[in-house]
Amino acid sequence: MHGMICGLGQVGYRVALLALHSGHKVTVVTIMARPEWERELRRAGARIFLGDARDEDFLVSAGLHQIDWLVSATSNDLTNIEIALDAKRLHPQIRTVARAFDQYLAKRLESSFGIDRVLAMSQLAAPAYVSSAFGDELVASFMWGENRYGVVKVSITDGHDFHSKTVAEIEDKTGLSVLLTFTGDLKAQTQPDRGLTLNPGDTVKLVGPEASILALGSLPKHVERETAASKARKNQPFSINKVWGNAPRDLRILLLGLLTFMMLSTVIFKFTLGLTPVDAFYFVVSTVTTTGYGDITVGAAAPPALKLFTCLVMLVGSAAVATLYSIITDALISARFRQLATGHEVPEQNHVIVVGLGDVGFRTCEELLRLGVEPVGIDLHADAKFVTTLRTQMAVITGDAREEEILEQANVGTAAAIIATTSDDTVNLSIGLLAREEPGHRKIVLRIFDDRFAGKVQSTVAFDGVLSASRIAAPTFLGSAAYPGSLASFVVRGLLITVFARSPDELDTSLASGESLVLNQPNRGALTILSTRLHHPTEDDSPAPIPNTQHPTPNT
């Protein structure tokens, strides 16, 4: 097949390279290109035309009528829409895919403008950042009809439930289908024998409903949804633990000292006045609170030392009561200010901090909320586009996450992960380095625009994930353009995997010639997995999730 890619930014470059490695002919139309990208694509066989794709004559002269599919991937939504509409009008048989930054606009363009697929970068990237924060187990996710499906990676170790189990036994136990297996020598099998036994060092890719994937336990335990009661208890603005924990350290030490003095006073009054322990404690409390009911008194005949000690108890007791009231008042006021500043209480532990609440950050928070994980958002601007919406669902802090005080407000010390998704690579890297220095253990995931720079950062500093949005998105753009009817596309170990909600005999003959695996789902038809081996694979396992676009249930 022959494809055209308009715009040679990060996304366009990655799509072009992946298409060439998949065996497609590629024509690139771009106003400008980085010299190293242009050289690499030309060496791989791409034709590159420098010019504006919005110029219809130029687009036709670049060979539009010989093109099977077109991806418009410039950095401007309106430009992408214009190019896709022009291409469809000039060449009605062409399949068009347009990039859009606005995910809400993307949903409407497909139905209203006749563009075959409109993909929002935030929808593609968010699940990848989330899965990376959970240990990079979820390789891809996609919607089939009303249900969410996924592909999960499981590494076999000694003592693992899959150790010494056959493919058939694993499928019967989990309700998932084995998509790929990688034996210890890294040899991939796309249609593994059901009698194949898995051993330590092997890796298996399973595909099936999300509920079955969650039942595997591959995701962290804190991902499990909380009950309404437990969530309500956690979000209570006033509790003893929160009052004590939020009080200044000096006040806490002072109060403990005063309470110790009161207990000592109880013992002294017990023996000097001949009282029971309960009566002695009652006398101390009535004294320090200045209640003085008069039923128990020191008396005129008491020794002067005892009278002086009683006076001291009155004075110290008043200070103790004032200190206690100060702690309670401080806790109430602090809770109110935090609620005004963040919208919700910042979770105490096992939450995920998302820095940068733009399109990607917003989608990342939505995905976390869907999985039952409590996110805490941090954004530099209180009036950012999605901040108001997110405040109704989670805690949001306004400030610069490169400052320790802001991370401390988000309880970074007890967070399960921090995901930096701002639009500035330098800021994301700075946040990641600062998070590494903070006490506690957490996963650190960074968004880096340039995938090559991301690789250099990952190899130099051992972050848990350094992900390029263009690398995440490229298989989806290519799959949507080149493989009509595909639900999902992703890359694993030199294989481009494409998922179809139909049987192989219903696929285009040019597609059906590839390796395929048919997964029969009850009352839903067949889910076909097509694998294409890349000519020059440069990809390792990389999460490449698919937008949550609804597709009709196949009648197969």
Q: Can you tell me about this structure?
A:
The chain has 556 residues and is an alpha/beta fold. Helices cover 42% and strands 21% of the residues. Strands 3-2-1-4-5-6 form a 6-stranded parallel beta sheet, sandwiched between helices. It has a 6-stranded parallel beta sheet with strand order 14-13-12-15-16-17, sandwiched between helices. It has a 5-stranded antiparallel beta sheet with strand order 7-8-11-9-10. A hairpin with a 2-residue loop joins strand 18 (486-492) and strand 19. Helix 6 (121-133) crosses helix 19, helix 10 (240-246) crosses helix 13 and helix 12 crosses helix 13. Mean pLDDT is 79; it is low at 220-235 and 539-556.
What's the SSE blueprint?
Elements: E1 2-6, H1 10-21, E2 25-30, H2 35-43, E3 47-50, H3 56-61, E4 69-72, H4 77-90, E5 95-100, H5 103-113, E6 117-120, H6 121-133, E7 138-144, E8 147-155, H7 167-174, E9 177-182, E10 188-189, E11 203-209, H8 210-215, H9 228-234, H10 240-246, H11 249-272, H12 277-288, H13 304-342, E12 352-355, H14 359-371, E13 375-379, H15 387-391, E14 395-398, H16 404-409, E15 417-420, H17 425-437, E16 443-447, H18 451-460, E17 465-467, H19 469-482, E18 486-492, E19 495-500, H20 509-512, E20 515-521, E21 525-533
Parallel strand pairs: 1-2, 1-4, 2-3, 4-5, 5-6, 12-13, 12-15, 13-14, 15-16, 16-17
Antiparallel strand pairs: 7-8, 8-11, 9-10, 9-11, 18-19, 19-21, 20-21
Helix pairs in contact: 1-19, 6-14, 6-19, 10-13, 11-12, 11-13, 12-13
